[in-house]
Amino acid sequence: MSTCIVNRAKLERYVLNIKMC
After folding, report:
1. What is the pLDDT of residues 6-19, one digit of tens each?
2. Which segments within the chain are labelled E, that is strand?
């Protein structure tokens, strides 16, 4: 989950963040 929070800061990978979570 911590990775998701870090990547969440970047809107560019926001979509990927949702899929990864």
Report:
1. 666 677 766 766 66
2. none
